[in-house]
Amino acid sequence: MISILRQQMSGFTATYRRELNAYFATPMAYVFLAVFLLALGLFTWEAARFFDSGVADLQPFFAWHPWLYMIFLPALAMRLWADERAAGTDELLLSLPLGLPGLVLGKLCAAWTVAGTGLLLTLPMWLSVNYLGNPDNAAIALTYLVSLLMAGAYLSIGAAVSALTGSQVTAFVISVVIAFVFTAAGWPLVLSTVQALFGTGFADLIARFSFITQFESAQRGVLELRVVAYFLGFTATFAFLNCLWASRRRLG
Amino acid sequence: MKARRYLVLMTLLAGIVLLAGNIAAQRLLAGARLDFTEGKLYTLSDATRVTLRDLAEPVEITYVYSRRVGQDYPAIQAHAARVRELLATYAAASGGNVRVREIDPKPFSEAEDEALAAGISAIPASGNDPLYFGIIGRNAIDDLRLIPFLAPERETTLEYDLTRMIARLDNPEPPRVGIISSLPGMKALDGESGYVVLQDIGRSFSVEQIPDDFGSLPEMDVLLVAHPGTLTARQEWLIDQFILRQGRAIFVVDPAAKTALSGAMFSATDSLARSSLGRLGAVWGVELAPQAVADAANALTVPVESFTGRVDEVAHPLFVGVPAETMSRNDPITADLMRVVNFGAPGALIQGSLPEGVILAPLITTGPSPSFIDPARAARDMAADEVLQSYMTEAAPLVMAARLSGRLPSAFPNGAPAMDEPSDASDLEAAKAEAASLPPHIAASETPAEVVMIADADFLADDFYVVPGSGMVVADNGALLLNAIDALAGRGELSRLRSRAASLRPMVRIETMRDAAETQYFRQQSELEARLSTAQARLSELQSSASGDGFFAGDPEAELTADERAELSTLREDILTIRASLRDIERDYRRDIDALEATLKAINIWGGPLLVTLAGILVWRRQAKKRRGAA
């Protein structure tokens, strides 16, 4: 049992290192991080007017996370497999005696690390709010943690879709569309339409699959087991799809 | 081809697993949660858990919410989700004794009839359909209690409202509170009028209004004497006997009740403004000091219109806002209060020689250096500076509220005083019968007494703690009285529930900066404004003396002496500079805060991206060097 697991995961460390290196050796990660931080800062301070709210609470900051992830994380993940396809290295990779799950998770975790670095670099935001007032730091720490979990779910969509197509741009567009569906499902604007068409019960069911709905309790400072289960389950499902879609060449 | 079908099939399968797994997980894991907020804002309190655990019979909760209408109002929708989850938590914590069902009263549906029949409010909404958003509770014998509308601004008291409702359904007889009061706001019979605090009492307890000319007291659990009018000896004896038998009373007395006067005519005597503990206090060894109390340490700011028409905020020592943390933290009545309690021209409770074994525990005291103030003046409009002029600092804090516990003697050692003869002869028979039905006189406590005394009547009035219009409660005045009734009615665990402050955390640093700027610039500004007006007065004086009917009408200043002309030109320059510095002050007032905002914005918006870009460039140059080295 253990040996099968070890065999399946054999490529993890090497893939993780290789992908992380690829991110930071090219301008990719830097451009991504700079633009992500800039957008998050602008939205928090200019659009949500964090300073004028007068409340020492990171609510106006966290509220943007799902929406920004929806755009930025597919961009981060789009090259993971599409790149290999374009360069023709995927066949080589798949022919190596390495477990596919290890490859998939290695790539996903590398992208996740970059996203986590982005979150880490918003530390000045946390320091600022502590400088301005006395925020509830335990609640903020929790929100950061769940936000990181949510980032994983967004990345898993991007990674899986990128295994499906050879073009980064196509991968990006499809990923954003899927991410949008799972984000906007909790949006009142969408919900009311769904409700008008299919009834309230269905609208509630849809809302339960929305990242926004799932992220809501964490924003209040409550850790719910079902939220963790949702994000982890979502990530696992798309990682599985990723394996499936990456291996179709091997299947022939 | 086969592989392709396999792929599609597996993809579909994964999708179904995700769908089903999530639906199952959402249900199975619904209750599992950890509350990371500092005040445990989203966790059921122990009082609720105890109430739910000890339920004797099942309670059915019907949650009424018009989903479609609610979705147009984000605040309502968010609150509705919270209520739903809270109800689910209740159901889980009750071990099946609380059953929750939800109905959605669509127009002309059975559910709508059910909601309306129970008495749920129909709130007019922007569309054609009204919003129903309330809770109906029923017990096994079909008693009904409800929250007609779940106002989002009452979120912090939601748990209390719900738990109280369930407790009442489990034990349908609410404790009875008898009220003796001369305040119109405490006398209303129905639940709609009167003070907010009276309405709140009506929600939790059954209220017995006791008429001014009472000849006996009704059956009740707690007696609330709120700023009583003049009581006859017989009436005082009735109260005395109640306290000796039942032992549970709250006295709200005041040497200078502003609110008692505000409704009355100008000719109203000062006797209206004063109430006391009377004969009872003398026996208990507690007196209400004859004078009113001012407290500079806890003075509230009140808006005062100056004669120029400008409204200033002035600290007024007769209006006392006592912070919750200075109150007794051991007594359940005050221990859980979170906010200030506002008093208006309160009084002081002076301890004399207590009967043996009786304890007087202070609940609320003034700051370190209070002062006595003439009550006749304090009850009327007394300006803040007048109060400060007659301020004579006392050496020690004064007690404004206290709890008296122990076995008390009767204030009537010679037995019952004579019956009050009604003026109307026809009532005499009834009065005699009433007197005959009274239990016999007793000389000492049958039940150890718990008497709460609060030396201010104004704190009951809405204007002391409720924002007019919105109904938002800004101080714990009402909570103080309700806690006292709860504690005395033997519902101690509910009093731990009430006052959960909202989780608002202000940016303290900015508020401090704003306050500092206000004090700094306010003085400068008023100085400059004074200088400006004197300069302008002198200017117009010079100009009017100059614009005579003389020969030099074309150039009025020609009539002035050289000195005067010099003064005139310096005055004009002065006025210009003063005006300029006034403008500067207005700008400076926000300058520090604006500078802070700009700095934080720069760091937070541009700091991260710049850092990352620099790191990127560094890495790129190192790689370029390496590549050149390799080449």
UniProtKB/TrEMBL annotation, chain A:
Membrane-crossing segments per the record: 20-43, 63-82, 103-126, 138-157, 169-190, 227-247
Subcellular location: Cell membrane
Pfam families: ABC2_membrane_2
GO MF entry, a single one: ABC-type transporter activity
Topology in the lipid bilayer: Multi-pass membrane protein
Any one GO CC term of the record: plasma membrane
Entries under InterPro entries matching the protein: ABC-2_transporter_component
Record keywords, A-Z: Cell membrane, Membrane, Transmembrane, Transmembrane helix
Protein name as catalogued: Putative ABC transporter permease
Organism annotation: Hyphomonas hirschiana VP5
From TrEMBL, chain B:
Provenance organism: Hyphomonas hirschiana VP5
Domain of life from the UniProt record: Bacteria
A Pfam family this chain is assigned to: ABC_transp_aux
Region (Disordered): 413-432
Residues annotated as transmembrane: 603-620
UniProt key word Disulfide bond: no
Entry-linked InterPro entries: ABC_transp_unknown, DUF7088
Record lineage: Bacteria, Pseudomonadati, Pseudomonadota, Alphaproteobacteria, Hyphomonadales
Domain ABC-type uncharacterised transport system residues, every copy: 175-465
Identification of the protein by name: Uncharacterized protein
DUF7088 domain mapped to chain residues: 38-135
Keywords: Membrane, Transmembrane, Transmembrane helix
